[in-house]
Write a structure and sequence with these properties.
This protein has 496 residues and is α/β, with parallel strands linked by helices. 49% of the residues lie in helices and 13% in strands. It folds into 3 domains: 7-175, Nitrogenase molybdenum iron protein domain (Rossmann fold); 211-324, 3-Layer(aba) Sandwich (Rossmann fold); 330-465, Rossmann fold, CATH 3.40.50. The chain has helices spanning 7-19, 25-47, 62-70, 83-95, 109-114, 116-128, 143-148, 177-198, 224-234, 251-257, 270-278, 290-305, 309-329, 345-354, 373-380, 392-402, 411-419, 427-431, 440-453, 456-466, 480-485, and strands at residues 75-80, 103-104, 136-141, 158-159, 162-168, 215-219, 240-245, 261-264, 283-284, 335-340, 358-364, 385-388, 406-409, 424-426.
Length: 496
């Protein structure tokens, strides 16, 4: 007689056939723990604390890890999860500009319960491991394989010279896609750090032209011009910028680990920072945004690297003059609410305040960390309400409460604002995808914000023209009330 499957297997196989990642957060979490994933989930709970809202508006968390892998050269990505989830993730990734095939290992209840899924994954990795094509292969477990306990840690670490990295990124254990970027970035750094321990490693091509100055690695996905701007800020201090993490090629991981200082531009990369700490590298928070923010950041760099105080002060004064002039030339005179899920919301908020904006509210889907504490305190000292793990309801309530001239936020926030004839800007594509650092930041931010606010009259004309079209009974949504108003049912008819 065959051995009966354990409880976790039964729960996970049921989820695979009935609900997938919608099988219930608590159910999947319990299954994963029974299947041996407790340590991993406990680490995620510590790294990415939840509350007051446990999973704010964001896309599937696994998208973050997928994005990191797809942006790296010579890196293959394989997804293990429900077909519907894989379809959604690949669709979103290509919508965001990925031009790379995503691998997928299908499964059913039988392969999931019997362990055949793991064998299929291992076979697919062996088939992909071509050293002429790839430096690394990333395998990502989604909700159901994680809940089933598919042991990606048992995959070979190296096949034909191609690195193999397996990670679990379940929606029931990782709050946002931003933090999922951290999971893969940290896993790659851990692998690279172990390689360094074993002997000499190759330098990245991008480092060939660099001199021997100490360098500062930049953590967080930033607009490319910002890396150039930061390098210019550091040069008078005798420093270079190092790689931006997540990196674009494997060798850049070695260069990042060789940097003298880590700049946590995006504060949610806590596992990534832990790997740098293990390599003996200090870290600083915030970023060079605005005049005050840049001066404070330069001071933090100088203190962390024991630079000559006179040199640091001279660079602070020079930058303060230049950026203050840029802020004065590009003022923002408007009441604004701000929300997003990228993790850079507080940096944008600081720049808005220094530009003269009447900023009332900042909502971030990411949590409070040691690396955004100074930004939080700076904003709150100026009367700005800061909400971490902000829910959609809180972001919408802020729009109602403060009646802004402009609402910057996620798609539903922007939609909510426009329905009220208020200008809105999608944070991810229209704000975070612009220069923020140094003197370029005020120019780029003021241009799009002031241009958008100036179009308020268009909203008013459109609202007056369309009237109630698309609202209430004319919204195209058939309810008993709208059906009755249209004469399709009588007052005494029973509703279905």
């Amino acid at each position: 007689m065959s051995e009966s499957p354990n409880t976790a297997e039964v729960i996970a196989s049921s989820a695979a056939t009935e609900g997938g990642c919608h099988g219930g957060k608590d159910t999947l979490n319990a299954a994963a723990r029974e299947a041996g994933k407790s340590a991993q989930l406990d680490t995620y709970a510590a790294d990415y604390p939840v509350g007051p809202h446990d999973q704010p508006q964001s896309m599937c968390p696994a998208f973050g890890s997928l994005r990191v892998g797809l942006r790296m050269r010579r890196t293959a990505t394989v997804l293990s999860g429900s077909a519907c989830c894989v379809y959604g993730l690949t669709f979103t990734s290509h919508f965001y500009g990925a031009r790379r095939t995503v691998g997928y290992v299908p499964f059913d209840s039988e392969t999931l319960v019997t362990g055949k899924l793991f064998e299929d994954i291992r076979e697919s990795v062996h088939d992909l491991a071509d050293p002429d094509a790839y430096d690394a292969i990333v395998v990502i477990n989604l909700c159901v394989p994680t809940a089933s306990g598919v042991p990606l840690d048992l995959l070979p670490k190296d096949i034909n010279g191609v690195r193999v990295i397996g990670i679990d990124v379940p929606g029931f254990g990782v709050p946002t896609h931003a933090e999922a970027k951290d999971i893969l970035a940290a896993a790659m750094l851990r692998y690279a750090r172990n390689e360094i321990k074993q002997g000499p490693v190759a330098r990245p091509q991008s480092a060939a032209a660099k001199d021997s100055k100490p360098s500062v690695a930049l953590v967080g996905e930033i607009f490319p011009v910002d890396a150039i701007s930061i390098d210019r800020l550091l040069q008078p201090l005798g420093l270079n910028t190092g790689p931006v993490v997540p990196t674009r090629e494997w060798r850049e991981l070695y260069a990042a680990l060789d940097c003298s200082l880590i700049a946590m531009l995006h504060p949610f990369y806590v596992a990534t920072q832990r790997e740098f700490k293990a390599a003996g590298r200090p870290a600083i928070g915030s970023a060079p945004v605005g005049a005050e923010g840049t001066a404070a950041w330069i001071a933090a760099v100088g203190e962390a690297l024991y630079l000559n105080p006179a040199v640091v002060a001279r660079q602070q004064d020079a930058l303060r003059r230049v950026i203050t002039e840029s802020l004065r030339a590009n003022p923002i005179n408007a009441r604004i609410t701000l929300s997003g899920y990228e993790g850079s919301e507080l940096l944008v908020a600081r720049l808005l305040v220094e530009a003269g904006a009447d900023l009332r509210y900042v909502g971030s889907a990411c949590p409070a960390t040691p690396w955004n504490r100074d930004d939080q305190q700076w904003l709150e000292a100026r009367g700005v309400q800061v909400n971490f793990r902000a829910s959609l309801e809180q972001d919408l309530a802020a729009v109602d409460a403060f009646e802004p001239d402009l609402a910057i936020g996620t798609t539903p926030v922007v939609q909510y604002a426009k329905e009220r004839t208020l200008p809105g800007l999608y944070f991810t594509n229209l704000i975070s995808a612009r220069p923020l650092m140094g003197a370029a930041g005020p120019v780029a931010l003021a241009h799009i914000i002031n241009t958008t606010i100036a179009n308020k009259a268009r909203f008013d004309r459109m609202d007056a023209f369309f009237g109630d079209v698309g609202r209430k009974e004319q919204a195209g949504i058939w309810t008993p009330g709208t059906a009755k108003a249209a004469g399709l049912i009588t007052a005494g008819a029973a509703s279905c």
